[in-house]
Request: fold
Amino acid sequence: MISRIILATAVAATSALAMGSFAQGQQDAAKASGDLRPASSFTSIGDPTQRSLALFEEAGKVIAHPRCVNCHPASDRPLQGNAMKPHQPPVVRGAANMGAPGLQCTTCHGEKNTPLVTTSIRSVPGHPQWHLAPIEMAWEGKSLGQICEQIKDPARNGGKDLAALHEHMAHDSLVGWGWTPGDGRDPAPGTQAVFGEIIKAWIATGAVCPKG
Amino acid sequence: MQISINGRPRELDVDVDTPLLWALRDDLGLTGTKFGCGIAQCGACTVLIDGNPVRSCVTPVSALEGRDVVTIEAVSGPEAEAVQKAWVGLDVPQCGYCQSGQIMSAIGLLKIEPKPDDQAINDAMAGNICRCATYPKIRAAIHAAAKTLEG
Reply:
């Protein structure tokens, strides 16, 4: 049975290679990133609750972007590309969210994005701390409201209070990779600085979450 | 620039963005490491860097400052010996093209996990493709090597 699973996986991967299904880079490049409104543009909303909601909806453009969700998968396998397909090769998260023993993230992902000369994949993404978000931080398949409640919950956000959450969103350099994802990948909308300001303003207005 | 390959410093006169695989094969004549896909999808180019399996086709030589690269030509130690013995004993390769990468990944796995179960082997070897589908023999050989390592 297991040998058949391995074989099936390998055949799938081989035929995917042969068919050039790894043209994800091109798909990614074709989709332009949207803009991100600065936090200051929300001051016209007088009601703090409504302003907070609007700010989080805006932050959602980043949070729900494939550059972010792809490494917050609901399963043990990361996702790839704007189409958010399962990662190839078929890697698993491993006990420390850095891959399986013998096939760690660092087997392929270096400290920096690495440009390639192929047209199928234009670069291999990289960062010194490249790893998956822990399973309790999974965002894949969740609504923005559910993600909002989740990122405020210390049991599911790595024990962060709102100040630490802002620090993570605004300054963590692996989060920041989302805006500098390397050739062939759309960056998250806006900049990390603009995103950080939105999160700060959302917290200042009560960190209100959308319903549902 | 200078990098450590197979235990000795080697001078490379290449652009710093050159993938290690090119440096190994074209500049140093170490052709045991194979080119398969060039995009880290097949595992044929696997070498050990500081003891861990790494795809040399997507590793620029600029990332190798102060690190220790070992290729199939010079890999040594108990895991390497056990893997070599198991591979020969079970006659694992068919065409053989992917086997250099398979062997380096297997050695890398056994260095971390001396007694892997089927799932651990599947997870570790999932990035090494074999078009001859020698997977059952590869898994059996890794189990055999683990047994040898037990003593």
